[in-house]
Amino acid sequence: MAVAFLSLAMCVTLVTVTPAAADPVGACTATKGAIVAVDFGPFGGEVERGCDTTPTTGYELLHEAGFTTEGTQHDGPAFICRIGLGSGTQYPTTDQESCVLTPPATAYWSYWLAAPGKNTWTYSQYGAMDRKPKDGDVDAWVFGGTDIGGTTGRPTFTPDEVRAQGGTETPDPGNTPTVAPGTIDLTAATRWVGSTLKDGSRVDDAGTPDYLLTTEAVYALAADGDSATLDKVTAFLAAHTGDYAYPSGPDQAPDATAAARLALVAEATQGDPRDVGGHDLIAALADNVCTTGPTTPGCTAPGDFRHASYGDGQALGVLALLRAGAVPPAASVERLTQLQCDDGGVTGILIRPGENCDGDPATTGLVALALRAAGGQEAAVAKARTYLKKAQSGNGSFPGYTGSTIGSVHATAYAAQALSALGDTAQAGAAVSWLSREQLDGGGFGFEEGATDPALYATSPAVLAGAGTDLVRLTTKAPGPTDPPATGPPTTQPPTTGPARPAGEGPDLEKGVAYLTSAANLRQGQYYATGAGSSRADFGLTIDGAYALAATGLDNDKLRGIVDFLDKGGKDGEGRTLRDWTGTGTAYVLGGSLGKAALLAEAVGRDPRSFGGQDLVAALAKAVCAGPSRAPDRSCAAKGAYTYAPSVFAQSLAVMAQLRADERTAAQEPIAYLESLQHTSGAWPSLIPATGDSDVDSTAVAAMALDLAGGEKADKAVDKALDWIAGKQLPDGGFPGAAGNSVNSAALAVQGLSLDAERYGPEIAKALTFLAGQQNSDGGFNVAEEGQRGSDLRASTQAVGGATGISFGTLERSLTGTTPQPTPSPGVSTPTIITPGDSTGGTGGVGDTGSGGSGGGALASTGVRTGALIGFAALLVGAGWRVVVVGRRRATTEGRA
Predict the structure, then answer these.
(1) Would you tell me how many other CB atoms lie within 10 Å of the CB of residue 837?
(2) What pLDDT was estimated at residue 483?
């Protein structure tokens, strides 16, 4: 009865997609087609598998393999709520799950992937409609729950147990590449490096010294022995040791990565690492090793150097101690081995034992060098060596991350260094030969194959690889005749795919707006759809687009078209309106959606008390929970939460909506609840109820909400939040999110840090440069620096709006003088599900972290993140170098707040 009522009340129906004639499993091989396995064990069944010889998307793979699916009433077929085999029963059944809203995080279909040759599962960073399987891939669907790290709920079977031909036909990629010899022009390269120095002493970023890049310049110049320049640069770094290595003050634990880098600078240039600017960096590293896990600030697990943050920082710390003649703590060396995955690769993330592991060649090369230098780790080094040899492409290059099909200069340089040190000179030579062909006319190197803009991050390790040295042996002393060849230095940056931009230059907002308002994306100028062939509106994403247009003011007519559609009861192709999306008049009123819509009305000067045929302000006040609900009722997480608001993003948007409607009294309990969710570090989690993760996107939007609330307590919370966000910035200017080095996270970080733009100007400038590098020729943006290429609507809405730095709490745009747009006529037929084969214009699937996040929550963009967490598995585990894997359960369906 409840389900039937809801179907009518919300004006939606459940859509079941039936399979085509399935390809026989035997038609797929290890090199042709993809396999999908579905575990019906929780329902008394077996693990069933199927094949698609010509896979296009994960969604189509399921259906071509003989399975049926059903979505939720609120989100449509894209959010997989039930799965069945052929004409059999779909699970969970209607008495187990209504599939009206997003299922609970403890009981949903999670999505897992394994690439050819991999025998471990990775939680999918994309939703099924956006995931594009390749020949030899294996997908798996498992019913149950996962934690934020994707370390629980994995399939109980291995990929090889269900892979075509048992996985034994996967070709071995470890054969030595046959390429023409090549050498790097070291003189030209170091000349270019020297040209990047301001006053011959430092690298500057928008007028602010970039200490990390300055150390990279030292490593490259040391390989060439340019003593005159080196003296000026090392003197500058020594004078600023406190600024770089001790950001929290000289009486606090140092930033381990910065301390290690500076120590290595001293060691490579015949300086004293025990006296760099008056600081004993060796003692500082040795005295600040974690003995516990996350309960100690700056620690993930015992053995970490405090504030190392990533695997490369840990490796650099070990190397710095070794080169100084100190014995690194055994736990710190052991920690490096805990980062090694089953296939021998090493992840750049400081995971805890048992967490999901996905290695990359750059981190693997650096850690192999560190473990080899430490001694006693022959087994781990051998595994790393095997991984590197298998990861090398036929042209000599190495990919930057799992799944990439193009060579990365960054990864190839580090892999070459390690292979050279390990005696694999043929493979190392092939890698250097590939690097030589990527050297640009000016002497520098871009980030990846075919890049045209030089970058110091890429050039420095390439110089070391070409010089036959690495951070273990790099020195300005004359080389001894018996020294074996070594390899190049590691960087602490993830590989990037976009071109380098001048410091502080942001994305082209006019092009971004043109992408968002194009006819291919904005249906009849009114709304964004849930998929390429769907007529179902994604109301949450549509509001995200409106926020972006309001922030830029570059196309107010199109903005009005969206606002009028929402405000005046416009219907999508299925006859649904904004009222259906918010759940008004049903037992499932979505507080976050109410707040998101009300906030838009307030931003553009419409009345939120009469918007879309409803009083959003009154409805929002009624949606404030008096206390936690009792199972099976999932409506209220706690006192002060909003009904069916699954994320900090949703909570924050609703708080801002109430405050902007002058409902300060009604907002007090929601504000108090939001404040209670903040960690002592200053960060907020992504999900409600809180799961213990720390999320950039959620922290940024929560800071916006509390900044609007004001008051001494709120102001202190905002200050801590911004400090935490600034500390999470990656060397290339990006920020970690569930999708990797995330566009959503960088854009939201810009908005958050802009609350104190004077203090965080350098971080904002770097983030804008990162966003510019992720913008495509069509004006849209990639989801992240890693993963599938192509413009994504969700990421693009956040990038365009976030780049302005305007808080959702203060966003205003007058529609006076704009022209009304025609309202589309509603369709009556159920949409045909068409797989978005071209990522351009697609709604994407990764919301990035909390919705801002990552997958399941759909959009980081404005929030939607988490709620949909589940079936979409939009996480990002496959990122390369330092991607924080958080917010795993965020759906990529409608941008629900």
Answers:
(1) 11
(2) 41
Task: Give every strand in the sheet of 138-144, ordered side by side.
Answer: 47-52, 34-39, 138-144, 108-114, 122-123
Distance CA(579)–CA(4), nearest Å, equals 18
Are 836 and 57 contacting, i.e. CB atoms less than 8 angstroms apart?
A: yes
Beta pairing class for 138-144 and 34-39:
parallel
DSSP annotation of 695 reads: B
- Write the DSSP string, 499-563: PP--TT----HHHHHHHHHSTTTSBTTTB-BSSTT---B-HHHHHHHHHHHHHH-S-HHHHHHHH
C-alpha 434/C-alpha 182 separation (Å) is 7
Low-confidence ranges of the chain (pLDDT < 70): 1-23, 125, 147-152, 165-175, 226-227, 477-505, 739, 787-788, 822-897
Pairing mode of beta strands 208-209, 204-205: antiparallel
- For the four alpha carbons of 99, 100, 102 and 107, in that order, the dihedral sign comes to negative
Task: Decide: helix, strand or coil at residue 234.
Answer: helix
User: Contact 181/437 with Cβ under 8 angstroms?
Assistant: no
What does the pLDDT read at residue 127?
A: 79
Which residue is listed with tokens 């399987």? 133
Q: What is the pLDDT of residue 863?
A: 30
Paired with 781 in beta bridges are 775, 792
Name the β-bridge partners of 854: 847
* pLDDT for position 118: 80
Q: How many whole angstroms separate alpha carbon 112 and alpha carbon 47?
A: 14
Helices 256-268 & 311-323, crossing angle to 10 degrees? 40
Grouping H, G, I as helix, E, B as strand and the rest as coil, residue 448 is strand
Q: What is the pLDDT of residue 522?
A: 93
CB 815 within 8 A of CB 556: yes
Helix (H, G, I), strand (E, B) or coil at 621: helix
pLDDT tens across 178-195, in order? 888 899 999 999 999 999
| Nearest alpha carbon to residue 688 among 631, 745, 644 | 644
Rounded to a whole number of angstroms, the distance between the first and last alpha carbons of the chain is: 27
Q: 3-class SS at 187?
A: helix
Query: Which residue type sits at 291?
Result: T
Token code pair at residue 679:
């960690």
Catalogue the E-assigned strands of 732-830. Answer: 735-737, 740-742
* Apex 124 CA angle, 123 and 129, nearest 5: 155
Per-residue CA distances from 325 to 283, 321, 373 (Å): 12, 7, 12
The label of the residue with tokens 């990552």 reads 854
Cα pseudo-dihedral 375, 379, 381, 384, rounded to 10: -160
Cβ proximity of 90 and 109 under 8 Å: no
Q: 704 with 718: CB under 8 angstroms?
A: no
Dihedral, CA of residue 447, residue 450, residue 453 and residue 457, to nearest 10: 10
64 within 8 A of 19, measured Cβ to Cβ:
yes
Alpha-carbon span 565 to 819, nearest angstrom:
13
What amino acid occupies position 295?
T
Q: Are 892 and 843 within 8 A, CB to CB?
A: yes
- Confidence (pLDDT) at 425: 86
User: What pLDDT, on the 0 to 100 scale, is given for residue 104?
Assistant: 76
Phi and psi at residue 69, to the nearest 5°: -135, 160
pTM, entire model: 0.56
pLDDT (tens digit, 9 = 90+) per residue, 17-56?
A: 555 556 678 889 888 899 999 999 999 999 999 999 998 8
